[in-house]
Design goal:
The protein is mostly beta strands and 119 residues long. It is built from no helices and eleven strands. Strands 2, 4, 5, 6, 9, 10 and 11 form a seven-stranded mixed sheet that branches. The chain has a four-stranded antiparallel sheet with strand order 1-3-8-7, with no helix packed on it.
């Protein structure tokens, strides 16, 4: 099992910045990717940003250039720096870890942290 503890989030004005962090513990071997998803009310959960163990990065188009995902493999943490926040970025953000065990892909999720962008 993998446990994920998130920190950060909160209320920020449009144009502001927030930083989310997530620490993974437990059986953390074979982690292939770490990242962040978000889910706004009435919408499906969507990938915001992910980073593989090899450093490959993927961003949701709407956040590219504003958000930066980073990973510390030694500390098993993943962070999301969010700049130039917009009201449409308001959502619950979830840390995600993907483990590859033989032919199985296992997803682990954090508890979620609320990000609200409003004046």
């Amino acid at each position: 099992q993998v446990q994920l503890v998130e920190s950060g989030g909160g209320l920020v004005q449009p144009g502001g910045s927030l930083r989310l962090s997530c620490a993974a513990s437990g059986t953390i071997f074979s982690i292939s990717a770490m990242g962040w998803y978000r889910q706004a009310p009435g919408k499906q959960r969507e990938l915001v940003a992910s980073i593989t163990s090899g450093g490959g990065i993927n961003y949701l188009g709407d956040v590219r250039g504003r958000f930066t995902v980073s990973r510390d493999n030694a500390k098993n943490t993943v962070s999301l720096q969010m700049n130039s926040l917009k009201p449409e970025d308001t959502a619950v953000y979830y840390c995600n870890v993907v483990k590859q065990v033989l032919t199985s892909t296992i997803n682990y999720w954090g508890q979620g942290t609320q990000v609200t962008v409003s004046s």
